[in-house]
Amino acid sequence: MRLRDTPTVEVSTRLGCSPEQAWALVTDISLPTRAAGELQRVEWLDGATGVAVGARFRGHNSNEAMGDWHTDSEIVEVEDGRRWVWQVGESDAPFAVWGFEVDPDGDGATVRQWGKIGTGRSPLTAFVEQHPEQEAAIVAHRMSVWRQGMTANLAMLTQLVDSRV
User: Fold this and answer.
1) Measured between alpha carbons, how far is 13 from 99 in angstroms, rounded to an integer?
2) CATH number at residue 20
3) For 77-111, b where at least 16 C-beta lie within 10 A, e where not — what string?
């Protein structure tokens, strides 16, 4: 696995709630702060208050290996009630692209979260450049961290839905 391949991680789960309820949950940008993962705090920027194309937000992150950092994200796609996508970093060369999708599923909804490494420069890019012989292991590790965080996010969604039933 190499950075130039722009690898993607995706997780999904079925929730016992309406697609509308699932949408309300996945568009709460603070959701991942309540799950186990790197995102510690998040805030809307430039007066934004919700998911809309062009809205920006800042995430404050932390992990043992990388310390503390923040990223600025911009929402680049919204299909209301169904899908929203944001990119991290520069708009012409993001270093990551993330999304949530909600699909009706019988009497519930299937929710997917995915993340894709982008082509822009990031601390990960710099680290790989310092250790090119370890690129595959570095990228695989980073993708596993993403998968763990997304899995925790969907577990949090399930817990929230189950607590409301």
Assistant:
1) 14
2) 3.30.530.20
3) ebeeeebbbbbbbeeeebbbbbbbbbeeeeebbbb
Torsion of CA 17, 151, 90, 118, to 10 degrees: -120
| pTM beyond 0.90, yes or no | yes
Sequence-separated (6 or more) residues with CB below 8 Å from residue 12: 110, 111, 112, 113, 154
* Residue 134 reports pLDDT greater than 90: yes
**Domain that residue 49 falls in:** 3-164
Q: How far is the C-alpha of 7 from the C-alpha of 9, rounded, in Å?
A: 7
pLDDT digits (tens, 9 = 90+) for 59-110: 999 988 778 989 999 999 999 999 999 999 988 999 999 999 999 999 999 9
Hunting for tokens 């310390």 — which residue is that?
67
3-state secondary structure of 137: helix
Could you give the CA distance from residue 24 to residue 4 in angstroms, rounded to a whole number? 34
Please state the separation of Cα 144 from the chain's center in Å: 13
Total domains in the fold of the chain: 1
